[in-house]
Design a protein that fits this description.
- By secondary structure, the chain is mainly alpha-helical.
- It folds into 2 domains: 2-35, no CATH class; 67-122, no CATH class.
- It has 3 helices and no strands.
- The longest helix is centred in the last third of the chain and has 21 residues, at 98-118.
- The protein is rod-shaped.
- 0% of the residues are buried.
- The model has no long low-confidence stretch (mean pLDDT 84).
Length: 122
């Protein structure tokens, strides 16, 4: 395809109008297939150069990971699936109780573990 396109550019008057129309249609179809897809699928790593940004829409936002079983990681950590829900601390009506305090400690520890596992903190 690249060779044919070079011939077209170098010798545009060597083709009949019908041939040129067919060549133009083929090129349009190829370019269209590259840029009109619903998504891009990469089979290699993606590298973004330094001092660049990723802009997202302000209407519906951005979603990373479309199911709980897809793995995500940050800052070179090992990718993990979505963590299960953290159990909320119990409430004893405002009175201090060692059991209530321990459920709070357990919830905080679970949140810290989730943050560490995804790579936000060490």
């Amino acid at each position: 395809m690249r060779f044919q396109a070079t011939l077209i550019l170098m010798q545009p008057n060597k083709f009949t109008p019908e041939q040129q129309q067919e060549i133009d249609r083929m090129i349009d179809k190829k370019i269209s297939s590259l840029f009109k897809n619903e998504k891009y699928v990469f089979s290699k790593d993606i590298q973004i150069l330094d001092n660049r940004t990723i802009q997202v829409g302000t209407n519906k936002g951005l979603q990373i990971g479309t199911s709980a079983t897809q793995k995500i990681a940050l800052f070179g950590s090992t990718p993990v699936v979505k963590a299960s829900a953290v159990t909320a601390p119990t409430n004893a009506g405002g009175l201090y109780d060692q059991t209530v305090a321990q459920t709070t400690v357990d919830a905080v520890k679970a949140i810290i573990l989730i943050i560490k596992n995804i790579g936000i903190s060490s």
